[in-house]
């Protein structure tokens, strides 16, 4: 009787171990299969379309200027691509919602943001709540949302929150930071969403961040922004 009990316990333990191993294999296989290769490929092509012509902006500006025919022609191509890409992205968002990187990868996830960021204000306002929810649910980055929040705020006539939006002054041939709310605390807000300090960020445009000087210049910046609209 004792031998039979030991054998029973052995068989039961072995069965439990095999079941656990089988469960772990199934779990790993399922995790791998959650990636949607078809959507990843589609989003990769959309991203290429979004970035390909924008990558030419700096060289066109340097060689021909912002007001040149070459620049205007390039923007026509960009706007056409943006409109076509938006149709595809809206179809994805309409069918699946804002997909996380576990489904479409990091690049695919950021492509959803890029196309919305490059759309018209009506589209941005439409999808802003969806992206906010996606950030809360871990399906989008707070740092990307911050850029969309800034762009929407400025387009609606408000000041930006995180200082992510810069523009080109055609008279001085220099970049400048568009109107920013509460400049003294901007780096606290940026840190809260995972963005680098503003001084480091604007150095990409050869700008030096001076809070006191910016506050003095803000009325001029606001006037310049209104004139360029």
From TrEMBL:
It comes from Chryseotalea sanaruensis. The keyword Signal applies. The keyword Signal applies. Keywords: Signal. Pfam families: DUF6624 (PF20329). This is DUF4252 domain-containing protein. It comes from the Bacteria. Residues 1-31 form the signal peptide.
């Amino acid at each position: 009787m004792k031998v039979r009990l030991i054998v029973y316990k052995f068989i039961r333990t072995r069965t439990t171990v095999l079941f656990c191993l089988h469960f772990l294999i199934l779990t790993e296989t399922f995790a791998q299969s959650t990636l949607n290769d078809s959507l990843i490929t589609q989003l990769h092509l959309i991203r290429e379309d979004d970035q390909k012509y924008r990558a030419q902006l700096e060289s066109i500006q340097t060689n021909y200027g912002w007001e040149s025919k070459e620049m205007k022609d390039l923007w026509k191509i960009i706007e056409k691509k943006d409109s076509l890409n938006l149709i595809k992205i809206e179809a994805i968002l309409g069918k699946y919602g804002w997909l996380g990187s576990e489904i479409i990868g990091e690049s695919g996830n950021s492509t959803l943001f890029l196309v919305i960021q490059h759309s018209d204000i009506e589209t941005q306002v439409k999808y802003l709540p969806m992206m906010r929810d996606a950030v809360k649910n871990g399906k989008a980055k707070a740092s990307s949302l911050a850029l969309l929040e800034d762009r929407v705020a400025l387009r609606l006539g408000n000041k930006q929150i995180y200082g992510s939006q810069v523009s080109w002054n055609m008279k001085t041939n220099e970049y400048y930071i568009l109107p920013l709310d509460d400049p003294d605390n901007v780096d606290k807000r940026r840190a809260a969403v995972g963005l680098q300090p503003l001084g480091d960020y604007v150095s990409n445009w050869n700008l030096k961040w001076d809070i006191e000087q910016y506050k003095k210049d803000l009325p001029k910046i606001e006037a310049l922004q209104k004139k360029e609209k």
